[in-house]
Amino acid sequence: MASQLNELKIIGRLERVHFPEWNLTNINAKVDTGAYTSSLHCHHIQPFDRDGERYVKFNLLDPSHDTYIDDKFELPICRTKTVKSSNGSTEERYVVETRVELFGETIKAKFSLTDRSEMRYPVLLGRKLLNGRFLVDVSQKYISQEIEEKKI
Predict the structure, then answer these.
(1) CA atoms of 146 and 127, how far apart (whole Å)
(2) pTM of the complete model beyond 0.85
(3) Cα(121)–Cα(55) distance, rounded to whole angstroms?
(4) Which of 7, 28, 47, 72 has the most CB within a 10 Å radius?
(5) pLDDT band (50, 70, 90) for residue 2
(6) Whether the Cβ atoms of residue 133 and residue 9 lie closer than 8 Å to each other
(7) Rounded distance, CA 130 to CA 134, Å?
(8) 82 burial type by CB count under 10 A (0-12 exposed, 13-18 middle, 19+ buried)
(9) Per-residue pLDDT reduced to its tens digit, 26-35
(10) Are the beta carbons of 96 and 111 closer than 8 angstroms?
């Protein structure tokens, strides 16, 4: 057990992540061990069918964000998920799979798409992505950025 813990990277309560498939870098992410699935801030989320498969098209982030790109992205829907927010309301979300980079490691992960414009951070990293890879030190933030800067 102790050797497994030694192999896990320490992550702070806030980190910067990259989405290489979408050419997005240094996106602020909140680490949330209370959330099972990670989520991503999107708008204009629209499901559609293509060749008998369910897809979703969406814009990442929103025009007020520094790295906003006014492109529509289209991905297959992995599943839908009913999510209960911290204020008690429920929402049906589409879940997609993409790659996220953190601590120089590229991870294939599932993200639910939602409007996080009222939230401070556009990305939320949940337990499914964190489990077996990271230990969370809530007293720290942006540890991955410090490590990347030391490499330069």
Answers:
(1) 23
(2) yes
(3) 25
(4) 28
(5) very low
(6) yes
(7) 5
(8) exposed
(9) 999 999 999 9
(10) yes
